[in-house]
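Internal tracking record. Fields below are filled automatically when a chain is submitted to the structure queue. Please do not edit lines marked as system-generated. If the sequence contains nonstandard residues, flag them in the REMARKS field before resubmitting.
Queue: standard
Priority: normal
Entity type: single polypeptide chain
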Amino acid sequence: MKTTESDNQTQPPSRLREPYPSQYNGGSLSKLSTSIAESPANKDIILLTVSGDMDTNTAPEFEKSFLTVLQDKKYKIVVDLKEVHYISSAGWGIFVSELKRIRNENGDLVLAGMNPDVLDVFQLLQFDSILKYFPTVETAVSKGFKANPAAKKQPAR
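SYSTEM-GENERATED OUTPUT FOLLOWS
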């Protein structure tokens, strides 16, 4: 609990981010880095590792990497978000924008390693109803692309 000087009332700590994240100190803009690699456990799965904050300024950098993977006709994608501290609506929109295309190609987009603040927003926006999430990349690779028995076609009679 923290106490404000003006009224000496105790207030619960805020879990919300400040309106202008710390990367804006001194006028420098936020940074985002991405890397693309095949999963060592399954060469059919691409690992897209992201670090930094995904906001309006940096989302295009992520989108460029994401679209590069799709242009290479790789449709089984795990996005490692372990080092991402914030995702704006621009970032969330990128995940959802190509989902239909990916699934039409018998692939999927699986998120992994979200920190608690990012996971809270993910669940608040109810993206957990359309996107798979796993706590680690290893679990995402091993369990994220299992065939859905309900999706299998019934044999012709």
